[in-house]
Amino acid sequence: MRLLTDNPVTEPADDAFHFGPYVSMLHAAVERAEPLPLTVGVFGSWGTGKSSLLRLWEHRLKEKKVPTIWFNPWKYDRKVEVWAALLHTILAEMETKQGLREKALRLAKAATWLSVRAGLGTAASLATGGVVKSGDVDTMLTELAEGDAEQYRQINRFENDFRDAVEEFVGTDGRLVVFVDDLDRCTPESAMTVLESLKLFLGESRCVFVLALDLDVLAAVATNKFGDAFKDAPAEVVSGLAYLDKIVQLPFFLPDVSFETLRSAFASYVVQREDDDDFWELLRRGLGANPRRLKRFVNVFNMALGIAAAQAGSAQDRAFRLQLAALLVIRSRHRDFFHLLAADPTSWETLVTFFRRRQDTPEKREQHRLALPTELDPFADDRTLEALLAWRGGPVGVPSVETVRSMITTVRTTTGPDRLSAADL
Predict the structure, then answer these.
(1) Residue 420 within a domain
(2) I want to staple 254 with a disulfide (CB 3.0 to 4.6 A). Which of 19, 44, 260, 351 is the partner?
(3) Residue-wise over 71-98: b if at least 16 C-beta within 10 A, else e?
(4) CA distance linking residue 202 with residue 181, whole number of Å
(5) In the prediction, which pLDDT does 115 show?
């Protein structure tokens, strides 16, 4: 069994999702953009390949000898001031250039002062990666209390010093591209810190910041920031689009990867029947075209099949494989129905019968609904669940009560206790 990893694509030769044309378009747009700075937003929902696109773009930039920096804010989430960690990541790269170390150290100290003033205190040493020691922070706290004018002037000069340091690092016509990935994994508070810290760096510096995040995350960030101010706001404001306009000059919404492309990329990883059209149609209906979700499903499905074969003492037939796939989708995307199945395995047949009767005689839909057991009523209008279990001509069928119980045991052995978060498998 081969596992699909969640690592982003880094080489063009591995670009199974065909992101190359998007990389070329974005690269051409920012290659000669003037004046700088510029902020690019790469937007897409969870698991759609934003990190892969950024890594492919980074590869293109390195081929062109354009300096790049990669920053993962989630590593610092709730640990240190995220903006200070971002700054140190940039300064640490600058220190590698001869003649810039002293200027980078001065900027790091200014950043520490900003952290101290923000109440970060001795954690500023960690925020600057140890460039500024804990003892230095204690000294700065004392000096802050005494109102050291020179240090205040240093803070006020920060924007100009940063601009000059970047220009010295990249040249008068160059640009430094800073990739900020995985904002989706941060708390709204930390994501807001990253977005607002760009004001500190922007000024007139020769930087291109590339942000990757889910627009829904941005909406949560903006709502968290402005709270009741959004109560009567237009929909586009509440969605985060208005806030986006203030942060990002070049937005790019990553198109969905087609399901057929994902099937081609992942089919060889499926144990045995990787060419089964019905299997892939079941996944399309149940999981959609989300790369990460499909990767996890394939890994768990292969493991569950192996466990089922070990428990039965032989390989399972096609009907069992399709029903097991359906049950895994149910556990991932329809948790309440999975719990009901665990308590009452007959619910599968009862709900499928209801769906099919409603399809065959829609004029009697109210009668069919009244005959449905009360505990199944919450699922009667779930069109996704209906498409999964009762699609016309579908091969899933209805497993016996014994098979449902056996599959639930297999699924729990594979995926763990139900109380754990499924996280889309």
Answers:
(1) no
(2) 44
(3) bbbbebbeebbbbbbbbbbbbebbbeee
(4) 18
(5) 59
